[in-house]
Amino acid sequence: MQNAKSLFSYRKHWAARFGVAPFLPMSRDEMEQLGWDSCDVILVTGDAYIDHPSFGMALVGRLLEAQGFRVGIIAQPDWHDAEPFRALGRPNLYFGITAGNMDSMVNRYTSDRRRRSDDAYTPGGAPDRRPDRAVIVYAQRCREACAGVPVVLGGIEASLRRIAQYDYWSDKVRRSVLVDSKADILLFGNAERALVELTHRLARGEPIEQITDLRGTAFLRRHGALPPGWSEIDSSLLDAPGRIEPPVDPYAMTPVGGEPACASGEPATAQVIRFEPGKRRLDRDRTVVRLPDFEVVKEDAVLYAHASRTLHLESNPGNARALVQRHGDRDLWLNPPPIPLTTAEMDGVFDLPYARAPHPAYGDARIPAWEMIRFSVNIMRGCFGGCTFCSITEHEGRIIQSRSEASILHEIEEIRDKTPGFTGVISDLGGPTANMYRLQCKDPQIESSCRRLSCVHPGICPNLNTDHTPLIQLYRKARTLPGIKKVLVASGLRYDLAVRSPEYVRELVTHHVGGYLKIAPEHTEPGPLSVMMKPGIGSYEAFREMFERFSREAGKEQYLIPYFIAAHPGTTDEDMLNLALWLKQHNFRLDQVQTFLPTPMALATAMYRSGRNPLKSLKRDERLRIPKGERTRRLHKAFLRYHDAENWPLLREALRRMGRGDLIGNGRHHLVPSWQPAGTGQTPEGARAPRRPASGPSRSPAARGAGRTLPKRKGRG
């Protein structure tokens, strides 16, 4: 993988003389107190401003501040007119726009397309503080507020909508968010490198429309305007819907008649040698792959899946080619993904002078997202799991970027010494996947050339380093720091990796579980698991056995809380029935369940849209089972909550239709009873009934979560 210029090697902008702001300003008064007459960059976000590295705007703002730029923040502006976007004046360089830490549509709507009643990233959890498709709306208002100022898009919403993408909420394929927003450039993925380079070049006076060479950026150019020295190849030539022939090596010499004599062990004789015809080899660094046009994928679901497959195959920063997709009379150009940050760069980003608190303008208002992470530490980025329903890969990439042990321990000390309300408990030492810290390919060359979508599916790659020793050492050092009573691991973890290190599981279970550990098998059946790219349920069982054994050895009563997905592509009614039977067998009663939500650009979303499986070469006549329709999705959700009397009428009807009436009755082997409690079963199929006042022994908050593996005993049904 090619080297990249260090984030912190740039000559600082002249405004560095103003020093570090206690908080990045959100008002003119704050700017005046800092001695500023203007901002170089104004960041607009759909989240409340919390000055902490877990919140994108704070991280981006502090990074630009470290480069010498004056950065202001407009957080959750009223988008109904342009005036709030003039609050800090006209920026000298650009507006940087993000919807926040979540896609705005995911933030505002459930998987049933119903409005959410709260927003974790807003003071008081108040809803409706950001618009639908916030990036588009904010960009439009910024252009109205300050005509002629460049507009730069970033964050997860922009990343996941950078090409034509299926939008679940409107049930149609939408154009790239860059086209709809009319912004000048889009930064996707881990955008620190592109952001710093772009800002310095704009400060030097370079026009933004001429900055087209930055990795991790998307921009628009006139259709067909191929830069000098570049070649274009159609994506269908690389992976056409239908049978794919192996590529021909134009330089291979094959004897007429088959195998060369030297390979057979027979004496060599004179043979006619010919060159196999084939296309000339193209320079990957100067080759752009043309995806099907927006107007085509909007109508052709198979070609939409093909475009999604191609994008994911071109996602390794070591070998990815540029992509281009036509939108009307313009081409959307996607440069290859950014080069991952080094450990030193990760440390530099996380060690910036964050206030580690919400902006004082919010007063004592509670911000749920801040309460959730205020005592947690992020130790790494990225995930090589490749789960098809997850957006982490599309945004953060498959290559793990880890912080150093010293940087992590320093942040724990910062929390201990500076965060109000700290009681000695670190609530989470993790990341997207808690136990991928420092796990990477054993060979950098293999890593740079690999095109696998997952390092752990269908099995763990033999080239993957699965050594948990650095993580074990980190845990041990963290919990022995003065003033630290306990260090918990609350992030999800890969149990198929964990079982390879019994020492890690012992360490985790003995010292870092607070009674309950969340884990995500997602399903039990091979069909859904294969399209999710998740391990078989046997891996979960192996981890469960270790977990319970080490808990007993430690003298602790601890439980796993598993998470499952209903109505995922590739799931049949029979799959959900088998999952429900497994849940009952293991005495799981799930209170909160997740129905599959097709997020933009995820591979599972391409499955949902197309009815095809883009994990393999696509065929038009090969279909994938897709649970669609309100009734089907509610049925699958009801199977996960088989114990809820509100779901019993729906389940009885389904079981009879499936020929499984034998599962209706009042015995222990039945799934649902034949009787119905008075006043139940009247809500819409599969919908949650209003929670009734509790009767009998109370249940712990953890037991009211996703699920529990609890033995039947007094007081616990």
Quick structural gist:
The protein is of the alpha/beta class.
Provide the structure class. alpha/beta
Sum up the overall morphology in one term. Answer: globular
**What's the helical proportion of residues?**
25-40%
Radius of gyration, in Å, reads 27 Å
Tally of DSSP helical segments: 25
- Counted beta strands: 25
Query: What strand order characterises the main sheet?
Result: 3-1-4-5-8-9-15-14-13-10
**How is the main sheet built?**
10 strands, mixed
Q: At CATH's second level, what is the architecture of the domain at 14-213?
A: 3-Layer(aba) Sandwich
| Gap from first CA to last CA | 55 Å
Q: Spell out the CATH superfamily of the domain at 14-213.
A: Response regulator
Task: Please identify the top-level CATH class of the domain at 14-213.
Answer: Alpha Beta
Q: What is the mean predicted local confidence, pLDDT?
A: 90
From the 3D structure, determine the CATH topology of the domain at 14-213: Rossmann fold
Beta fraction: 5-15%
Low-pLDDT stretches: 243-279, 688-717
Map the helices and strands.
Blueprint: H1 28-33, E1 41-45, E2 50-51, H2 56-66, E3 71-75, E4 94-98, H3 104-108, H4 134-145, E5 151-153, H5 155-160, E6 165-167, E7 172-174, H6 177-181, E8 185-187, H7 192-203, E9 217-222, E10 231-234, H8 235-238, E11 253-255, H9 261-264, E12 273-275, E13 287-290, H10 294-297, H11 301-313, E14 322-327, E15 330-334, H12 343-350, E16 357-358, H13 368-373, E17 376-378, E18 380-381, H14 392-396, E19 401-402, H15 405-418, E20 425-426, E21 428-430, H16 444-449, H17 469-479, E22 486-487, H18 495-498, H19 502-511, E23 516-522, H20 526-532, H21 537-553, E24 559-566, H22 573-585, E25 594-595, H23 603-610, H24 630-640, H25 648-657
Parallel strand pairs: 1-3, 1-4, 4-5, 5-8, 10-13, 13-14, 17-21, 20-22, 23-24, 24-25
Antiparallel strand pairs: 2-16, 6-7, 8-9, 9-15, 11-12, 14-15, 18-19
